[in-house]
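quick one, 112 residues, struct below
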Amino acid sequence: MKKIIIIILFTTMGCKEKLSENYRGYVFNLKKEPLHGVKVYADGVPLEFTYTQKNGYFSLDRGSLTFVDDLIFEKEGYVTDSLETVRYIRGHETIYLFLTNRSDTLFMKSIK
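---
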């Protein structure tokens, strides 16, 4: 019985998602076209930023490996958007956005 409990404990501990050292992902418009030149920065740290590439991809170093910031996305002609990079679902699950190996995407709305 003790062996089973230990195996389950190691299995659940090993399933924890490893966070990246940088924020990364894609930014598209609502027509699903990549947006080039979107300014991306961590909330409260506007002097450290990056811009999306032609394919909409961005990569931004995290200021701290122990703290996760919200991200701000700005582009002229589009609604500025902020995004929580950590979400908690009913206290049971934690979802990380733009911080893992999967490619997360933000869709920005144009100003009409």
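Residues 20-108 form a domain with the Immunoglobulin-like fold (CATH 2.60.40.1120).
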